[in-house]
Amino acid sequence: MVYAVRLIKAGEKEEYAGRYAPQVRYEVKSEIYGCCIKVLTDDKTVKERWEENFYFISQGIRSHGRLYVVADPAVPEDTVLYEPASKTAFLVNISYYGWIKSLALSVAGDVLEDGHGISSVHGACIDADGRGCCIIGVSGAGKTTQTYGLLRDRTTRVVADDWFYARTFGDEIFAYGSEKNFYIRADLATVWPEYAGLIEEAEFDAQGRAVVDLRLVTGKGRILPMTTLRKVFILYRDPALSLAPRYPSVGETLSILEENRWFNPHLLVKSPLKEDLRRRFFSALCAAAEVVLVNTAGTPEETQRTLAALIHG
Prior knowledge:
GO terms for molecular function: kinase activity. This is HPr kinase. It comes from Methanofollis liminatans DSM 4140. Keywords: Kinase, Transferase. By secondary structure, the protein is of the alpha/beta class. It has two domains: 4-116, Phosphoenolpyruvate Carboxykinase, domain 1, CATH 3.40.449.10; 120-312, Rossmann fold (3-Layer(aba) Sandwich). It is 33% helix and 29% strand. It has ten helices and 17 strands. The strands form three sheets. Strands 8, 9, 10, 11, 12, 13, 16 and 17 form an eight-stranded mixed beta sheet that branches. A seven-stranded mixed beta sheet has the order 1-6-7-5-3-2-4, with helices on both faces. The chain has a two-stranded antiparallel ribbon with strand order 14-15. Strand 12 (164-169) and strand 13 (172-176) form a beta hairpin.
């Protein structure tokens, strides 16, 4: 992560909106788990990737949140400004679409967290024979690689590959996806050749990523809107430690999550109230699902066998 979020007040928001309004050529509203989120930009590529990534919503619906994605030579690279009351973000001189879509999901998450008791999880979520499993961890631990590896099993279906929303109902946690198509890396087929056909047809950006329709590989029936979480896998990579999975206590799990900022670098607001909401959600998740620490220091196939045994064993 190289960008930092600066919170701004309503007056500043109006100034920036007025400043960038003349640049806006495209305005697109999309549905992100029940929220209408609008992108305003002068970049046709951003507009097209956004439309590929998220579900369409009637353009007559008023937006719950909005993102200005613009260029401004007077502003430093990778600048993010956010006004919490109106849920308005300004992404200035940001070229990486992965950050743009994550910040869109985060704006929706801010709406949902504040008014609806719905939490955001930065990680993958799959369903294996009706059992929901989420995969979280630090960047580089192998979350994406392992998620797509697990999807080679026809009994495994995907809810989300990078971000999902979660609600607590009684003693259960339900997980919900929100993206129509997924943003994948060009090197995915290097690890898992089964995705070579998908990679060959994709149009990759300068960062070596593309928005793709995973249904072309998995089939339509293997993209699910939701599941009930039963297991939480926290991935980490440490060659000095054993590859055997470990089952941390609730206290240790919460300490790991808090120390790593809930494994979500894209959270826009980090107030004491927000942190309390997140702590309560993850406490409920630890009570509802089995948590397992998985060391990915071995080969991808070794980690696959470990995860498969934990999921189906």
